[in-house]
Amino acid sequence: MKSLKTWFEKAFPIVDLHARAERREVAGLEAVHWTGSSPGLDIVRNISSSGMYLVTRERWPEGEIHPVRLVYPDLSDDSPDNQVTIETKAVRWGQDGMGLSFILPESMDLWLWKSDGLIEPEDILEEFRLSRALSFYRRICPAATQELKLLFREGLGNMRVPHAISIAHRAEIMLAADPNFERMRAPQSVVLRVVREGSWAQDGATQQLWAGILVTACTVSGNDESNLPYIDLLAELATVDTRLYLEACTKTPKVFASNGAVSAQTIHCTAEEMMKVTGVHDLAKIDRNILQLSILGLLEPRNKAKYFSYDQDANLTPTALGLELFARCQGHRGAPHEYFARHYTNRDQVRPDNEEPPSAPATTE
């Protein structure tokens, strides 16, 4: 009974709204701001879930708002996915700096001090990224709030949480371009599956596909579950599958029929090209990945069930289903031909359906 109580208190902590947020010093944490002719870099003396104190010569007028990026110089990976930029407001001046309060999304809850032990700068950055991602998921699907909290805090594990964060970061950037951004909602069934299954994706390209499928599921009504069958397909893609699939969808010339359908012109790739695309030199493995994509219905069926070799070509032509999934994974909610007509309008990519296709290279596949 005691363990159950401890778990419940950890998962659903009681917050005293009148208590002052605990502040701690975190050695090595710094902040970059853009208030002058060049970026300024200052030391973060202490930080809490509501603000921080910067050791700086600058003094912003009280109430002035500026973006600040938290950084840790010793962090090896400084990619955009790992950066933390937040809006801050000047609230007070000190002898050697100024106090800033955080302007956070309404549903963003920071949980900086998970223990009484030593907190490293990367732990602070990770918590900001996690809280921002959780805030985004909760905003587009309030009904999933409690399940999302449990997944991020307990269910996904340390290996999968960064992947779920990356998907949220990418999806938020894509969705921000929509004029109805603040009103967009997604069904709980889609959001939870994206978090649970998309978090297995280790590479950025596959995470981008998951982000796109989530964005496509966001509507003003919030009840569009049409992406669930496409999620079933995405869940089957490994890193090499994604590389082959993206190559097929982006490199093949598109054919537009008079009835509005879109298809891809047949394309064959050499073994050398396949190895370059996948980064894999095992042709048997590449062949299995192509077969997997064919079984899923994303590539055209194979002619023969045998491995290809260095002197053979492989059919890498996407099916109508493959093109439809690709369009949805780019955040497109309309018909597939509308997406490809907009993004592939040069002569090499568009051919009327009454035009004779060029002869395909011979293949022994």
List the helices and strands and how they pair.
Layout: H1 2-11, E1 30-33, E2 40-47, E3 51-55, E4 65-71, E5 84-93, E6 97-103, H2 121-140, H3 145-155, H4 161-175, H5 188-198, H6 204-217, H7 228-234, H8 239-251, E7 254-256, E8 262-264, E9 268-270, H9 271-278, H10 283-295, E10 313-315, H11 320-329, H12 336-343, E11 350-352
Helix pairs in contact: 2-3, 2-4, 4-6, 5-6, 6-11, 8-10
Summarize the structure.
With 365 residues, the chain is an alpha+beta fold.
Task: Explain what you see.
It is a single chain. With 365 residues, the protein is of the alpha+beta class. The protein has three domains: 30-103, Thrombin, subunit H (Beta Barrel); 121-234, no CATH class; 239-352, no CATH class. It is 38% helix and 15% strand. The chain has twelve helices and eleven strands. The strands form three sheets. It has a six-stranded antiparallel β-barrel. It has a three-stranded mixed beta sheet with strand order 8-7-11, covered by helices on one side. Strands 9-10 form a two-stranded antiparallel sheet. α2 (121-140) packs across α4, α4 (161-175) crosses α6 and α6 packs across α11 (320-329). Mean pLDDT is 82; it is low at 14-19 and 346-365.
